[in-house]
Amino acid sequence: MAQLILSTYWRSSCSFRVRIALGYKGLAYEPAMVNILEGEQKTPEYLAKNPIGHVPTLCVDGVPYVESVAIMDGIFGCDGQHGVEWGVPISDEARVASGKR
Ligand SMILES: N[C@@H](CCC(=O)N[C@@H](CS)C(=O)NCC(=O)O)C(=O)O
Q: CA torsion sign, 14 to 15 to 21 to 24?
């Protein structure tokens, strides 16, 4: 099973929809709280994961994915019963939307 770490903030609607999608698919994840009111989304450490400086970011086995809609595309494209095989099912459209090649 892939390790999923979601950089999130409780008042972020973009993060919330990704949390809903993860819950819908029954995927366990570790939340990594980013306090956007304190500017934690603009630290060099966070910008290395998400150069836009926004939440959410979903790291799948250490690989960061950004943009909530693209992340949800990846979540709904994966097999929730047998674990995330993220690299395979993520669609070309999601890769483009999230800046992945
Ligand atoms: N298009 C992005 C928008 C992300 C976004 O705007 N996130 C907000 C919270 S909902 C944020 O991180 N704001 C912090 C900032 O603007 O510095 C997505 O859907 O993921």
A: negative
Residue 74: count of CB within 10 angstroms of its CB? 24
88: CB partners within 8 A, 6+ apart = none
Q: Whose CA is nearest to atom 19 of ligand 1?
A: 68
- pLDDT beyond 80 at 22: yes
CA–CA gap between residue 35 and residue 23 (Å, rounded) = 22
User: What domains are there in the chain, each with its CATH number?
Assistant: 4-97 (3.40.30.10)
What's the whole-model pTM score? Answer: 0.83
Ligand 1 binding pocket mutation candidate from 14, 18, 72 (most atoms within 8 A of CB) = 14
C-alpha gyration radius of the chain: 13
- pLDDT one-digit tens code per residue, 74-89: 888 765 554 445 544 4
Q: What is the pLDDT of residue 61?
A: 87
